[in-house]
């Protein structure tokens, strides 16, 4: 019943497919397939992936590796205390260091008072 007059022309959708068939897809220049720098866990020295990454005092850990040095309980960012790069749960930190009033004594280091005494003795002998 109905006939189109004139030569048959392809539909607009087909024209778009045929004209873009030879072109290449360009990707954004910000997109890169380069490998990112692998971060290593401070405790176990294995690769830390972004989903399991935890950073405390600029050290990178796995969630499971972030433990108290004394009792090995798992720590969180709100429940730890750090001293000289070692991480402790708050109860053990207080038990080991705060109760003595001297943080260096717990690590076997010289007390600051001893360092001051040596400087005073040296300065006293030089001036006399």
TrEMBL record:
The keyword Protein biosynthesis does not apply. Gene3D superfamilies: Cysteine Rich Protein (2.10.110.10). Coiled coil: none annotated. The keyword Acyltransferase does not apply. GO terms for cellular component: cytosol; nucleoplasm. Pfam families: LIM. Keywords: LIM domain, Metal-binding, Zinc. Residues 1-28 are annotated as: Disordered. It comes from the Eukaryota. One of its GO terms (molecular function) is metal ion binding. InterPro entries: LIM_LIMD2, Znf_LIM. This is LIM domain containing 2. It comes from Strigops habroptila.
